[in-house]
Specification:
Blueprint lengths: L12 E4 L15 H14 L3 E5 L5 H13 L4 E7 L2 H11 L5 E8 L2 H8 L3 H18 L3 E6 L6 H14 L3 E6 L6 H14 L7 E6 L6 H11 L3 E4 L13 H10 L15 H12 L20 H9 L27 H10 L6 H17 L5 H11 L6 E9 L8 E8 L2 E8 L3 H12 L5 E9 L8 E9 L3 E9 L2 H19 L11
Parallel strand pairs: 1-2, 1-8, 2-3, 3-4, 4-5, 5-6, 6-7, 7-8
Antiparallel strand pairs: 9-10, 10-11, 12-13, 13-14
Length: 520
């Protein structure tokens, strides 16, 4: 029996798809442990629905959705499925152990997609909607249906599709702007039209899923909320394929800050936003641009003299929200080489990290090593240290590295030891530069055909003793990409660790091959 509870009509449901749509970003593949870590942070934030993956895509995706469904207790866990029996049954099996599970099924409804991708007539699509939603509803009470490319669908046909989906048992109706084509006024009018014209629209929650191809994902989502949508599908840092998805932190803080214009609420505890942003960035290897709203390094920085003067007199002159409101706490404990284990543990907990005894001991040892090299240890250093230390079960690990370079040593030379599948192997190699020499060693010890697509270095903090954070992207013959990241006070060590991290992800990703038409 389904128990119906009254919902606050002004509450917006936050549906996070970082683990599904976000993972479709080239190079952003995550393993099971990484997905579980992010899912727990999302649960701590108060995310209503976590789309944990696409269970039919691979055994790895099925396992991830299933484990998250067993672990997470306070958020609804959704699994994505195309409008086919195999997909729906697989999604149902993956979320069956969840406290609250959801099957999210979709099919394209735009003329372009129906003709060229599905090669189906509109009436066939309509029939498939009724069949697939009914099939899902027989497995679970909570069913979401999405009209892929909804923003480019014909209004009359879309109305018929939505009505059929609700009649078949869908409790959430999602109208995606799949290719980021819509503009706010147009998109809001579409949502309002559906709510007004579909006879049974009052029996479902309307949801929006906006992509950022024109930079309008957040604006479109907020316009839709004003027009009557009550679920927003989004990702941490706006992660997602192509130009990304609607950014969760931007939507949440816009609603929180502009209550005068948008009197809506969410269940999100915004003080977890910075922690979630940093974790997703570290896990995926996708750096957050400094001027990114809410979570960028410059979001609460003021360099202009006029701005600084205003800030000193009243912070509200140039800040419409406080750093503390998104989890940027002012350091109360200064850490250095003389700091003890308890102070280290307290500081990590203040930043949102709760480590077990073994993990804490290992992280503390790494902290002491870092503190011996750096005069000041900043919060960002600790984030890089702890996140780098959580990588386990990798097939390839760096054990030692020595580099000879400069005007005397020509060509640059690298001597390296890697642990590969538990066995230590060593190599010496040369290259055009120290990085090239080190990467050539990796290729010698672990031959592969992946091509280096991106090599990027930036300092985690200020000063000549700052940790370097390196991002590496590898391309596997155009079939798949993987992105790795690592931080160290030695740029060369960080470079090798980042390359190895990307290579480990690529090896995992080779075992996964998602079916086509994954996006909604």
């Amino acid at each position: 029996m389904t128990i119906v509870t009254e919902r606050d009509p002004n509450q917006v449901i936050i549906f996070d798809t970082t683990l599904r749509d976000g993972e479709q970003s080239p190079g952003a593949s995550m393993n099971l442990e990484e997905k579980l870590r992010i899912a727990k942070v999302l649960e701590d934030m108060g995310v209503d629905v976590i789309e944990a993956g696409f269970p039919i895509a691979s055994e790895g995706d099925f396992e991830a959705v299933s484990e998250i469904a067993k672990t997470i207790k306070n958020s609804t866990i959704a699994g994505l499925a195309r409008a086919t029996r195999g997909d729906i049954e697989r999604a149902g099996a993956a979320v069956k152990h969840a406290e609250r599970g959801r099957i999210h099924t979709f099919i394209a409804t735009s003329p372009l997609h129906m003709q060229y991708k599905l090669q189906m007539e509109p009436e066939q699509v309509l029939e498939r909607i009724t069949e697939s939603v009914g099939m899902a509803r027989n497995l679970i009470d909570d069913v979401e249906w999405s009209a892929e490319d909804g923003s480019r669908s014909e209004h009359e046909f879309l109305c018929r599709c939505v009505e059929a989906a609700i009649k078949a048992g869908a409790t959430t109706i999602n109208i995606p702007d799949t290719v980021g084509y819509a503009v706010p006024e147009e998109y809001a009018a579409l949502i309002k039209m559906l709510i007004d014209r579909v006879p049974n629209s009052d029996q479902a929650v309307f949801s929006v899923h906006c992509h950022n191809d024109l930079g309008l994902a957040v604006a479109n989502s907020l316009a839709a909320v004003v027009a009557g949508a009550r679920q927003v599908e989004c990702t941490i840092n706006g992660l997602g394929e192509r130009a990304g998805n609607c950014s969760m932190e931007e939507v949440v803080m816009a609603l929180k800050t502009r209550q005068d214009a948008m009197p809506f609420t969410t269940n999100i505890d915004a003080t977890h936003i910075t922690r979630a942003s940093r974790m997703v960035s570290s896990v995926t290897g996708f750096p957050v641009q400094p001027n990114k709203a809410i979570v960028g390094a410059n979001a609460f920085a003021h360099e202009s003299g006029i701005h600084q003067d205003g800030m000193l007199k009243n912070a509200q002159t140039y800040e419409i929200m406080t750093p503390e409101s998104v989890g940027l706490t002012k350091s109360k404990i200064v850490l250095g080489k003389h700091s003890g284990r308890n102070a280290f543990k307290t500081k990590l907990e203040e930043m949102g990290y709760k480590l077990g005894d073994n993990a804490l001991n290992e992280a503390f040892k790494r902290f002491k090593d870092l503190a011996d090299l750096k005069k000041d240890v900043f919060d960002e250093d600790l984030v890089a240290l702890v996140d780098d230390d959580t990588r386990v079960n990798d097939r390839i690990k760096l054990t030692s590295l020595e580099i000879q370079c400069g005007t005397v040593h020509r060509p640059p030379k690298a001597a390296m030891e890697l642990e590969i599948d538990g066995k230590t192997q060593s190599c010496e190699g040369t290259g055009d530069g120290p990085v090239d020499a080190a990467f050539n060693c990796i290729k010698t010890l672990f031959p592969h055909g992946a091509r280096l697509q991106l090599y990027q270095v930036h300092a985690v903090t200020h000063g000549t003793d700052a940790q370097a954070e390196v991002t590496v992207r590898l391309d596997d013959n155009g079939e798949r990409t993987a992105q790795g990241a690592a931080a160290d006070t030695d740029t060369m060590v960080a470079s090798v660790k980042a390359y190895v991290n990307a290579l480990n992800k690529l090896l995992t990703k080779r075992e996964k091959k998602a079916p086509e038409a994954m996006s909604a």
